[in-house]
Structures are given as structure tokens and as C-alpha cells.
Write a structure and sequence with these properties.
Length: 161
């Protein structure tokens, strides 16, 4: 009886999803079918903001591959535990998307950032929970924690396939 109730509950929750709302929320992401080739680099670059721009760093603290998008365009990907990359962005409000792909599932995390010229912003992409119940988050951290995380991470370079 418990199994039947669980199946009914899961079926109802799947039918109740608002596909239009999900699509609007994921507008910060890029096209779902775009894939990246990700490589570890021996260099450990630190990027400073170009004149009039801002920089975001993303540190990957999860297993699997995470694609990152800003305002509907993919900007890169990270693969493996304790990797990072950075990107230059224009000032203003940006909608950031991170999608973690693991062997059998994927999770989306979204974040809004109001970028100021000359500033650097740090994010960590991580999973919280257990094997049965887990959540994926893209969380902004302060510059002290961000610099510390980058110091212990490998740089990933990525390019679209």
C-alpha cells in the first residue's frame, strides 16, 4: 500500500509541474543540448577585471560536470572536484545558471548578481545532502573564502564541442 501511495504522489507532482514557469526560470541557462570539452590546465591563472568590467570565479565542489550560463548563454563548464574557472562580465544585473550533470540525474541552480565595474565575485557550486536526498547549489561567497577555494583548486579550461 505504501508503494502505491508513493507512486501516486510522484506521478501527481510530475503532472503538477508548470513547464512554462520552469522554462522561464531556466532562461539564464543556454541551449540544453550544448556540450563542452573540459580539460585540467597546469596553469593557475587569476583574472583581474578589465576596464569597466567585472569578473566572476566559480569553484566546483561536486562530482560530475557543471555547465555555467549567464543571461541565456553558456560561458563554460567545470568537471571534477575542486576545479575553477573565471569569466569577464559587463556591469549590471545578470542571471546565472549552473546545471550539474551526474551519471543519472541533473540539477539546476540559479542566482541573480548585480555586477559593479572593477569588482570580482566568487561562487561555489556544490551538492548538499546524501546519496538518496541531495540538492545542488550555486552559492556566492565572500572574497576571502573565494580566494582560499581557488588557491586549492585546479584551473579548468572549457570549449564547446
Amino acid at each position: 500500500m505504501k508503494t502505491i501511495a508513493a507512486v501516486i504522489l510522484l506521478a501527481c507532482s510530475a503532472l503538477c509541474q508548470d513547464k512554462a514557469a520552469i522554462s522561464a526560470a531556466e532562461a539564464a541557462c543556454g541551449p540544453r543540448d550544448m556540450q563542452f570539452e573540459v580539460t585540467d590546465e597546469s596553469s593557475h591563472p587569476t583574472q583581474v577585471p578589465e576596464n569597466g568590467k567585472a569578473v566572476i570565479y566559480v569553484v566546483h565542489e561536486a562530482y560530475g560536470t557543471t555547465r555555467l550560463g549567464v543571461d541565456g548563454k553558456w560561458i563554460g563548464a567545470l568537471k571534477g572536484l575542486r576545479t575553477y574557472f573565471s569569466a569577464s562580465i559587463d556591469p549590471g544585473e545578470h542571471h546565472i545558471c549552473a546545471i550539474l550533470h551526474q551519471s543519472v540525474w541533473s540539477h539546476v541552480s540559479l542566482h541573480v548578481l548585480k555586477a559593479e565595474p572593477g569588482e570580482t565575485y566568487y561562487f561555489v557550486a556544490h551538492v548538499v545532502g546524501t546519496f538518496d536526498t541531495s540538492w545542488f547549489y550555486l552559492r556566492q561567497v565572500d572574497s576571502d573564502e573565494g580566494k582560499w577555494l581557488i588557491a586549492g583548486a585546479k584551473f579548468n579550461a572549457s570549449r564547446p564541442n
